[in-house]
Structure formats: C-alpha cells, structure tokens
Amino acid sequence: MRLSFSSASSDPDGSLLSPWALRLRQRFNLPLLVRWNGGKSLRLGEFEQPRVTVDVRDAAGAAALLSPSLDNLGQAYVEGHIDVTGTVQDVMDVAHRLAEAGSQMDTSGRWVRRIVHQLADASSHSKKVDRESIHYHYDVSNAFYAEWLDPAMVYSCAYFEHGDETLAEAQTRKIDHILTKLRIEPGQRLLDVGCGWGALVLRAAERFGARCVGITLSQNQADLANERVRAAGLQDRIEIRLQDYRDVKETFDRISSVGMFEHVGLKNLAGYFRILHDLLVPGGWALNHGITSSDPQNGETRHGGGRFIDRYVFPNGELPHIGTVLTTMQEGGLEAIDAENLRRHYARTLRCWSDAFEAKAAHLKTLVDNKTWRIWRMYLVGSQWAFENDDIALFQVLCHRAGQDATGLPWSRRWMYVGEPGRTNN
C-alpha cells in the first residue's frame, strides 16, 4: 500500500490515520490506543484505559495499521515499525480483531493466496531446502529453548489427562501416550523421525525397553540429545543421527513421528508415508503426531497468520487438513487405525510456553537479538490463539501397513490408556 507521506515527520499529528481510526471506531469497539510518533493519540473504542497501546514509528507502521492483516501487523512489530504495550494475550486478541475488521473491508486477495498455496512446487522441499529450514527454526540456541520449555525440552503438544497437570507432567504423559498406543515392547526397534532433543527415545529405552534410533536435521538438537543419552548411560540402546528421513535404509518394528511432517510439504505427503511404510517391518506400527489445517482445502490460517509464520518462523511449512492426511496415508500404503484430535491440548501447551516466555522475557533478550525475541513472542501466543479458535488442530494418527492381517489388534481402544504409568483399568 502506498501512503502520501514518506517519513514519520510528514504526519506529526497523526492526521492521516484519523479517518481510518474514525471508520473503525464507528464499526468496532476496540480497547486500543494508537499513538503516532509522539503526536496525538487515536482512540479506537470507548474505554477508561486501553488494554493495548500501539506506537507507530514510521510510515511502514502506519501502512500495517491501514491494512491490518496478521502478517502485516506481525511484520511491522518484528521489524520495529510499531511497538506495543499490553499483555501479550491482549495484544493478540486486539490484533485478531483488527485483522477481522480489515478482512471485512478487503477480501480480494483471499482466493488468490489459496491458489498460490495449492500450486506450491514440491521441489521447494528438497533435502537441502529442508535442512536449511530446520536449521533456521531449531538452531536458535539450546539455551533459548530451555528457558521456556519443560526440563526435558519436549517441543510438541503435551497431553493433559485431567487438565491440571504441570507442563512437565503433561509432556511425560504425551510421550507415554504415544509409546503405549504403539504397544512398544522390550527389545523392539523404534525409529523416532524428528527426535528433537531426545526426550521420546530416552523414555522409550529407559521405561519401555526399546532399542531406538532418533533422527534430526538440527545439529544443536543432535548434540544435546547425544549428551543426554551419554548422561543416562543408554548408548547401547539409543543412537542419535543427523539424518534426513529419506536416507534411512533399515527397517523398524515401530516408528514415531512427532511434530515433523509439517515440514514435508503437501505434494510430498504420500511419498513421506510411503517411506514410513517401507521402513516398517510386516506387522509394525507407526504413529504420526502433527499439526493440521482446519481448512478442508488445506489453505492457510485466517488473516495472514500463516504467511507470518512462513516468513519468520517455519520457512516452507505446510499444513494439511486431517482428510488430506488420511488420504495421503492410504496412498502411501498405510491404514489408519486410530485418529485423536488434541487441539485443546496444544492450546494449553502453548499457553504454558507463552507464559514462561513472558516470565523470562528479560533473560531471553540477552540470549537472542530483539527481532528474534519479538518473532517468538508473537509466534507462541498467535499459535495459542489459532488452536483455541479452531484455525489449526493437532492429530495423532496410529497406522500400520495397509492390507495386512489385523490379528493381534485389540478390539477396543482400552489398551491406549491401561498401559500408561499412573493409569488404571477403569
């Protein structure tokens, strides 16, 4: 969008933003105060005290407000064109209300963006590109992640059986829930695709007696995971590799893939599941735990939130609808046995992460630059909002090779809960 001024000094009193503020105030009652470069304040609602204050620093910041998608607002904040005051929860609530107002005034680009998204080139997920994308996201620093994750550094949706567990308890329950669904037995070979900092393979080896291979494309994750394996004395049962899933050649009794397939790409999903199929021994089981889109057409999240994440957080990430997951899984030669939606669980997980991030804000700013800090601050709370409001979901899908005899598969789902530590058969 072009504005009729080129610098902050061109509009010292904010008069060019006044008509915009008036239009919004007539249609929406937002607890938002906008201040223009130290000039006059613009109120966008009736309130005694604003919940959020936006300080516009330059013309780019004003442009973001005049076209307030989540992508535009997020980019303006990350790049320092605007500053915000208020709790991060209030900031995200007001941002979504602004973006909703903006979408009601201009929906012309929505279908164009969907078409572009659907025509994404599968070659954008080459091994080199995927390795670079993983490095960008996961190799910020282990110390940075350790400040707001649980002590085991589990960076995926937790499982809150009752809703009152601590984050650490819920993450352990999630790992046990996955391993129990897989019916992992002592001595079986388990492949963990996208093993993170090693929490799942450590638990699988120590608690369930499995022999594990964990693979990741992040050097930082591999280094720390190996340290943890050595510290636990489990080198004889766990191998951590810096390896692409497409380069694994041996077969396994069980496969877990947690928070990884979001990086595969929509056009590559059937091939991804075919690789899991080929890596399974006959009679083996796999579980895919990943984020899904709530758009049946696999479109991006509302109001440009997906574009912000692609630009700053997960380059080349693509989210399929659960229907697409099940279809491509079958195309890849796998039969879905069970699917469980953990959307509420991920919303709570992200609230825990965001609260920890806010509580550690001062220290986190010493670990990363201001831009990185702002990206992650908005990413965590924005993702929380998306899960809470059904823009995205999280599904665990248990599967095995299609067409094989299901002998040995229990008749009910009770086994998924009976075998977990701390659970009873009731």
TrEMBL record:
* Keyword annotations: Lipid metabolism, Methyltransferase, S-adenosyl-L-methionine, Transferase
Q: Which domain of life is it from?
A: Bacteria
User: Key word ATP-binding present in the record?
Assistant: no
Range of residues in the leader sequence: none
Q: Which InterPro entries match?
A: CFA/CMAS, CMAS, DUF7884, SAM-dependent_MTases_sf
Q: What class of enzyme is it?
A: transferase
Q: Which GO terms describe its biological process?
A: methylation
Residue ranges of every copy of the DUF7884 domain listed in the record = 24-100
GO molecular function terms attached to this record: methyltransferase activity
Q: What is its EC number?
A: 2.1.1.-
Pfam families per UniProt = CMAS, DUF7884
Q: Which family does it belong to?
A: Belongs to the CFA/CMAS family.
**Protein name, please?**
Class I SAM-dependent methyltransferase
Native source species = Ottowia flava
